[in-house]
Structure formats: C-alpha cells, structure tokens
Amino acid sequence: MSEPAYDLWYWPSIQGRGEFVRLFMAAADIAYCDRARSGDAQDLVEDMEQRTESGDFAPYAPPYLVERESGFAIAQVAHILAWLTDKHQLGTGDAATDLHLVQLQLTITDIVAEVHDTHHPVAGGLYYDDQKDAASKAAEAFREERIPKYLDHFEAALAVKAGPFMSGTNWSHVDTSLFQLVEGLRYAFPRRMTALAADYPALISCHDAVAQIDGVAKYVASQRRIAFNEDGIFRHYEELDDE
Amino acid sequence: MSEPAYDLWYWPSIQGRGEFVRLFMAAADIAYCDRARSGDAQDLVEDMEQRTESGDFAPYAPPYLVERESGFAIAQVAHILAWLTDKHQLGTGDAATDLHLVQLQLTITDIVAEVHDTHHPVAGGLYYDDQKDAASKAAEAFREERIPKYLDHFEAALAVKAGPFMSGTNWSHVDTSLFQLVEGLRYAFPRRMTALAADYPALISCHDAVAQIDGVAKYVASQRRIAFNEDGIFRHYEELDDE
Prior knowledge:
The structure is a homodimer. Chain A is built from ten helices and four strands; from the N terminus they run E-H-E-H-H-E-E-H-H-H-H-H-H-H. By secondary structure, chain A is mainly alpha-helical. The first copy, chain A, has a domain at 95-214: Glutathione S-transferase Yfyf (Class Pi), Chain A, domain 2 (Up-down Bundle), CATH 1.20.1050. A four-stranded mixed beta sheet of chain A has the order 2-1-3-4. Chain A is globular. The model of chain A has no long low-confidence stretch (mean pLDDT 96). Chains A and B meet through helix 4, helix 5 and helix 6 of A and helix 4, helix 5 and helix 6 of B.
C-alpha cells in the first residue's frame, strides 16, 4: 500500500466535525493518515500553533486536511469536501448541481453548529452543568422548530432527483454528511427522531444507502469510528430529548 | 445603463447577511437589482416558497443571488462571494490563496453566527427580552473570549502579505466582509471595540482601506445602505457591551 497523500488533523476524543471528512474519504476510498488517531490533543495544538507562527495562512480551527506533497492545508468542513470533490473528480459533471451541493453542505454546517448550541447555548467555554436551564429551552426550540425546518429542506432537495442520493444514483459529499447528521440526531435526540422518522422517507433512504457504500460500511464497522460521546457535538442528555 | 444581470434577495428591514454580498458587489461595481429595496418581506417569502415548490434546488434561507439570464440561484454568503469572484475573474490568480480566502470567509461566517447568538442564545424564535439573562452571559463570553480569538486570527492572516488587504494590494471578498465585521462589532460592542482597537492595527487598516474603495465609499454614503438596527445580526444593547 502506498503512503497516504493526506493528513487529517482533528481532536482525538470525539467524532465532531472531523467525522464529516472521514466519512467522505471512506466512501471515496481516499487514503489518509488520521492524526487524531495517531497522536494526542497536544500534537494538534502544537501543529496549529506552528502553522499560525509559520507566516502562512493557518486554519482557525480543526478539522483541517494537509496535502503532503504540497504542504497545502485546508480547513472548514464544507470547503475541504468541495476541494476533495474537485481534486478527485467526484463531481456530478454539472456545474450548477455541484454548486447546489456545496450550498446544501453549508446548510448542514449551519445545523451542526445549532446542534452544538443546544447543549452549549451560552458559551462553549462554560460547562454544560452551568447552562442547563438555557440548554433545556434551546433544545426544546431546536427539537420543535429547527429540526423540522432543516429536515424539510433536505427532504425537498432529495426529491429534485430520483435518488436515493441528492444528485441521483451517485453519492456526493452531501449524502455522506446527511448520513452523519441523521446518525448524530438519532444519538442526541432519539425520541424526537423516532417521532419524526415517518416524515422523512427520502432522507432515511439516503442515510440507508450511504450506510451501504462499501468504504462507509467498512469504516463504520471499524475501530477507527469512535462512538458518539458527551464531549462531542452530538450529545445525548436525557433531559434535552422529547418527542 | 444596461439591465443588471442579478437579483439579490434578502429581508428588507436589516443589513444582515445580505450586506456582505452588497459590499462586495459595490466594491466590484457589479450591477444588481436589490429586491430587498424594491419589494417587501412578503415578496421574499413568496419567492422562497415558489423556489421550494419548483422542484429545483432551493435556498434554505436568504440572502440568495439569482443570475437573470440562466435563472440560477445561489445561497450562503461565502458561497455567493466565491462564485462571484470566479465569475467576474476577481481572484488573485493563485489557486491556493483563493482557497485560503474562501476559508477565511467561512470563518467570518462563523463569527457572524456567534454575534447573532449573543442576543439570541436560546432561540432565534424567542424575543430578546425572554432570554436576557442568557444573553448577558453569552455576550460576556463573546466579548472576552471569542472576539479576541477571531480577531487575533484575522490579524495574523493579514500579516501574511504586505497589505493593506488580505492578499496584498488588491482587495477580495474577505476584505469587504472584514470591513462589515468591524463596522458591525463597533456598532454592537462600541466599548469593547474601543478597548481592543490598539491590538488590531492590520485589521483596522484593512477596514479603512476598504472604506476608500470607490464603490464601497459611494454605497456606504448612499440611501441604499440602511442603518444597523435592533432587528439585525449586529445589535446594540447597552447591557451587552463592556470594556
């Protein structure tokens, strides 16, 4: 096996935003060295500091992907996925559709930030226990208003083509990210997602079709996929979930 | 004067996210019809509904830009700005730099969302008065931790090239957006921004240089630039500001 062309940098102990990059690379069978699995958080912090001090453009936050040959580093999930799609010629061949896919990926970025804010509505730097009252209200609004608004949008977009994927029979970065979004929402809000499941048949079909992509199935079954936990973006707190 | 090639759709009563698109188009002297100024909110709601029902990919939320000739619609500020940059050949000519600029624009997107959450930490659908306690704590954390973290990042990035702009002597979408970020933060948190000003000379220089771009100067002095207000993203609530 040849040396991987990329290093992926992210926090070691969570799936987090890094997981959207991992799932896409697993589906596309792109080899990379996962620096979150081969090192610890201190390695990441030092790499970030070194990049900031290097005098070149540095990532604001992980995840970021480094192309070994050129040393080029790229951050922001939607940006990484669009770049990999171009580089590995995984686009649809239709420029307008590819642009719409990036737009949808950026909308996934938005809901992922909102998921995080359900358990940390006041400040990311404070403990959950110090913002539980606000989190309770934030999670209620998220469950009742935001989840349906976003999922309605993705369901309508999935109806544009015949499916099971967003652009038809071939998967894209949007599909691997929708898979992770559904996985994460089911983990964090199992009662709410069970209650809503019947409203989103196309989204569930998309999720299930992504689960069967060879590289995704192998990755998800492997030790490399760490479990969701209460340090990540999608967290299960019993008191934040309801039908 | 020829017919504009674009329609920009956004909420009529605020600068909001639409303003980042307006400032870029003003700087680049790209003609467009501002549908937020020629119509009301109901027109926007109806256009959004019609797009969702059309069976094509629709925006999740405004702002979105429509290319009149093709009917192609694109949403998400960073995505619109990257697309316009390519289309109007306003890139730097260096692919890696252009990608870094998009990455920086996406980081501006992140801080803009956090600014909004200072006055609406619990839920966008609730009134400010119903989340004032949480907002007070959220704004404190934003002022003390998040503003410096983001502005340190932009200041370091501005040091990569000689300036005054992010990629050197030519402005890009990142510069027009940093101008608006500084304008908005000064409006919302005047005491905090005054206290911090000396720490960010490159950012302030960039802001001041953008203000002198011919199209920006004309736009900002015109009636088309509506004032910041307490329905927008950057809001001034006396109780949320402090040194």
